[in-house]
Amino acid sequence: MDSQPGITIAHNPARSRVVAIHGGEEIGFMSYREDAGAIVIDHTIVDPRFQGQGVASQLVREGLTALAEASPKRIVAACSYVRIWLGRHPEFAHLTEW
């Protein structure tokens, strides 16, 4: 699924999140924590008003890319949504362990 109109994805390292913004409001996020040698993605949350519209998919797609570009650490998919998403998008599997 392509990017959703009006939704911006931004990496916020200070909060350990990749956020989805619509109309100036944060409508979703993919959170992570840094462990020794790894970035562990632990949650993907989207406001119920925006669920089913591809926001979570956009968060994961752009978030994985941003995390891989920002750090040489391996990325571990602990979030069940991210693991399912990776199963559907094998072209991103090289960025993660799960």
TrEMBL record:
It holds the Pfam family Acetyltransf_CG. Residues 1-98, 10-97 form the N-acetyltransferase domain. This is N-acetyltransferase. PROSITE patterns: GNAT, GNAT_YJDJ. It comes from Pseudoclavibacter albus. Signal peptide: none annotated. Gene3D superfamilies: 3.40.630.30.
